[in-house]
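Researcher: Next entry in the queue.
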Amino acid sequence: MDRLRQRADFVAVANGARASSPAFVLQGRARDDDGPIRVGFTVTKKNGTATERNRIRRRLRALIQRLDVIPMRPHHDYVLVGRRDALTRDFAAMLDDLRTALRRLDRQPAKSGRSQNNIKSGGNRN
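Model: Structure for this entry, 126 residues:
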């Protein structure tokens, strides 16, 4: 399993399916290549100080490390968007939430609508 690191990859996954839980939002998207599963983590500044955001990110990374790879689909990218509840939510409950979110993603079609070019350029702001 690899990590997502480039903004374009995060933006592409944001156009995929999503499933929410109290501690995070899971976004997923199928890729056309035969590469490994890739996972990205993001926590916005509205979730607290840098220390709190780092703690949220660490907990999300630990979720992925403890999760069996089996519920994750090959050739897919996933992004976990952390929420403030990830600081206080029970870890076992978060792990169950992640398994449930992965099952929900499998049942959802990918989002459509905005084109990739609009997203990269910031969209039409007329």
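Model: Residues 68 and 99 are 9 Å apart (CA to CA).
Researcher: Noted, moving on.
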